[in-house]
């Protein structure tokens, strides 16, 4: 069997296997994602990300992402940041322009995803991508292909919509993929409640489930939102970029936070800004290499 090269990376602990399909062909990415994501018998990850050339002139590169169960995802914010770091630090010579700033550099990548083109802004210091800001686009609060509110209201679970504390205790937000954000004092119910809600009929295409708790400012420290995620197709993950964006939007809509939030997840903290000027959500956070390797191709 032939071998392919891969890179394992993580964004705030959300780890994926990255393969450059401009160099290696992956004929069966669903099977590869299942086999390679296994944390006991494979590389171990939340899924597989394929980096490719863009088939359209409006984008520079493309991304496809497959969850650990082999299902294809529409978008992943953490993976997109990692792609930015991968492309800048491993693509030589760098094909896109770099803008000079005060002590730093910045470059822009237009990334084609299954939920549209996302713009990445790479913040570079001495040739290293220290963080990436992603324009995640506008949040969508109603989509009957992803969420049936009538079915949700019939439940006696946290899905039940309640008017309290200035807004609903649970809100649907799509960031190119579906999320349901539940405000609770028990974020650790993620492992028990998450899988039940992911597959509930209220979500025709399944759903990512966020459990969020407000962290008040204390001792001069900035507050935020402690969030745990049950990710569709992967289970509990250390972080979810689109989930952080959905949580920030839901918190702003219900008066629990302002337009900029610190989302504290198991693997790290992401800064989310929901700008009034264009109604877009901007996510900023780290991206890190873990290791490179070779593995046999799955047919």
Describe what you observe in this structure.
The structure is a single chain. With 299 residues, the chain is of the alpha+beta class. It is 17% helix and 41% strand. The protein has an 18-stranded mixed sheet that branches. Strands 10-11 form a two-stranded antiparallel sheet.
Shape estimate? globular
User: Total number of β-strand segments?
Assistant: 20
Radius of gyration based on Cα positions: 19 Å
The biggest sheet, with number of strands, parallel, antiparallel or mixed sense and barrel status, is: 18 strands, mixed
**CA distance, first residue to last residue:** 9 Å
Strand content: 35-45%
Low-confidence parts, pLDDT < 50 over ≥5 residues?
160-167
Short description:
The protein is 17% helix and 41% strand. It is an alpha+beta fold. It is globular and about 50 Å long.
Secondary-structure topology with pairs:
Layout: E1 3-11, E2 14-20, H1 29-37, E3 47-53, E4 61-67, E5 72-73, H2 77-90, E6 98-100, E7 105-113, E8 116-125, E9 128-135, H3 149-153, E10 163-164, E11 167-168, E12 170-174, E13 178-183, H4 190-198, E14 208-215, E15 224-231, E16 235-237, H5 241-253, E17 260-265, E18 268-274, E19 281-285, E20 288-296
Parallel strand pairs: 2-3, 4-7, 13-14, 15-17
Antiparallel strand pairs: 1-2, 1-20, 3-4, 4-5, 6-7, 7-8, 8-9, 9-19, 10-11, 12-13, 14-15, 15-16, 17-18, 18-19
